[in-house]
Amino acid sequence: MTWASGITAEHGEDHPGARRAGAPVARADRALSAPDAEWHAVRMEPFVLSNEHVHLAMPTAADVDRITELCQGAEIAAWTTVPSPYTRADAAAFIEEVVPESWRTGRGNTWAVRRPDAPEGPVLGMVGLAMDTSPTPEKSAEIGYWLAPEARGEGLMTEAGRIVTDWAFDDEGLGLARMVWTAFTGNWASRRVAWRLGFRVEGTVRGFGVQRGVRRDAWIGTLLAGDPREPVEPWPSAEAGDRVGADAGAGEPAPRA
Ligand SMILES: CC(C)(COP(=O)(O)OP(=O)(O)OC[C@H]1O[C@@H](n2cnc3c(N)ncnc32)[C@H](O)[C@@H]1OP(=O)(O)O)[C@@H](O)C(=O)NCCC(=O)NCCS
């Protein structure tokens, strides 16, 4: 959710070594001045991650209108912390300031999601990492994502999350010790993606997230560097209805078994 409060950017240079998950970053500057040094920032040039399923590159100024359009979507407004109503100025600030700044400082990494057969086509979604800046070499980051409605239901975000996750845990990538996923309670579509990536949902935290000035309950899950990157716990089913119902809160849709 942190990420969703203001993602995005410029253009991602195609870094040949980064065409597979786990490839080296374009440049990691580990000799940082304080205060960045305190939290072991890894600054880098934006680069492309791609495979046969997905193409990820830092969004560019050419994507502003498309991002503006997509962020009008009801589900994105409902489940993320992007501004609502979402304006072109919001998208422009995201592209021109938030995203390049986060790459530059090492505070985050954001990619536009496209299919590999249309790497210059319209943006289909966004995926990003927001670094926890705690002063420890055991780094952690939160993953965030959204997709255009027409790109949902095909596993595209699971593929995007997988390539980002593999890179983030790799010693030649960010070398993370841990990743975090959070979602406002009831966001089963987001939870399904996290579950597929191996995240373990560890609970519901009351009032954890602030969305446009209102505190909301959130699920939280983690994935550690040594964890399997596949589902490790049963998907909540009809038998788990009580637990799921309590988590989901009144009036929210029950999960499909
Ligand atoms: C989260 C998101 C990126 C997932 O996209 P996606 O993976 O293409 O897939 P879908 O939206 O179709 O749903 C993902 C899965 O959840 C399942 N799902 C959706 N609603 C569900 C529900 N109420 N109960 C159980 N499962 C549900 C879908 O059936 C699908 O399962 P499958 O992968 O086995 O087919 C997309 O739904 C989205 O952009 N949502 C709005 C923004 C958002 O919520 N971002 C995350 C913020 S934490």
From TrEMBL:
Q: Region annotation Disordered: residue ranges?
A: 1-24, 226-257
- Which keywords accompany this UniProt record? Acyltransferase, Transferase
What residues does the N-acetyltransferase domain cover? 62-230
Enzyme Commission number: 2.3.1.-
Bias type Low complexity, positions: 246-257
Q: Which InterPro entries match?
A: Acyl_CoA_acyltransferase (IPR016181), GNAT_dom (IPR000182), Ribosomal_N-acetyltransferase (IPR051908)
Q: Does the keyword Thylakoid apply?
A: no
Q: Which GO terms describe its molecular function?
A: acyltransferase activity
Per the record, the domain of life is Bacteria
Q: Does the keyword Transferase apply?
A: yes
**Pfam family for this entry, one:** Acetyltransf_3
Which PANTHER family is this protein grouped with? Answer: ACETYLTRANSFERASE, RIBOSOMAL-PROTEIN-SERINE ACETYLTRANSFERASE
Spell out the protein name for this chain: Ribosomal N-acetyltransferase YdaF
Report the source organism: Oerskovia enterophila
This chain is encoded by the gene named: ydaF_1
